[in-house]
Amino acid sequence: MSDLMRVELGERCEIVWDNPPMNVVSREFTAQLRDALARVSNHRGARVLIVTGAGGRAFCAGSDIAEFEGLRGRVAEDKLLLEKLVYRQLAKVAVPTIAAIEGHALGGGLELALCCDLRVASEQSKLGLPELRLGVLPGSGGTQRLARLVGLARAKEFVLLGEPVTAHRALEIGLLTRVAPKGGALDAARGLADIVATRGPLATRLAKRLLDESVDRTLEEGMALELDASEAVFGTEDMLEGARAFAQKRDPIFTDR
């Protein structure tokens, strides 16, 4: 078994899929990503996670098409169920997640990026869901997460036409958070990650969860959850540290307590 993932743990964790040039999504890739995400989730010091692909040509170019013929008639049990589980695992990581997209993010690669909270791409990157051109579906969240992010009309344009868009166009429609110079996606993502890592850890985790849950809840339900979360935050030492640091005109030192 080849090693397709590199993991670095710290306040700023990083997962690098290391199968250049295209970093395609195979069954082995997905299984190793599951293990890498478990390592990050079990690391108590984590405050933010960056995911990226090695090589510079592609963040991830989607599924390993060489596997398709062998999946006929049993794609769910041999591919998609595991992918949906692992992609959901990425989406549910408690700390904020950032996709650093150097090169193209196509098909399953874009679906991976959609699981992240923020997305940074280099200016030469292209993003798209070309699956219909191959006679298959974007079946690992593309028909669901994309519309929630950019709206139904834009999502239909992406999926039904299957034409990739430039990074600058993706920024215009809200698919990306930042566009970086060529070769600079990871540095830009690290800059954002370092900002996130200075925020109150518990408040940050709760804010992410509340924002995610706001999509599928009524306003009243969301407001009730927000109240409960705020009460939890106001019982912490970090809340006191934040208030004292503000009064003393210094940067707070949060301890996640």
Automatic annotation (TrEMBL):
It catalyses: a (3S)-3-hydroxyacyl-CoA = a (2E)-enoyl-CoA + H2O; a 4-saturated-(3S)-3-hydroxyacyl-CoA = a (3E)-enoyl-CoA + H2O. It comes from the Bacteria. Pfam families: ECH_1. PROSITE patterns: ENOYL_COA_HYDRATASE (PS00166). InterPro entries: ClpP/crotonase-like_dom_sf, Enoyl-CoA_hyd/isom_CS, Enoyl-CoA_hydra/iso, Enoyl-CoA_hydra_C. Keywords: Lyase. Gene3D superfamilies: 2-enoyl-CoA Hydratase, Chain A, domain 1 (3.90.226.10), Lyase 2-enoyl-coa Hydratase, Chain A, domain 2 (1.10.12.10). Belongs to the enoyl-CoA hydratase/isomerase family. PANTHER family: ENOYL-COA HYDRATASE, MITOCHONDRIAL (PTHR11941:SF54), ENOYL-COA HYDRATASE-RELATED (PTHR11941). This is Enoyl-CoA hydratase.
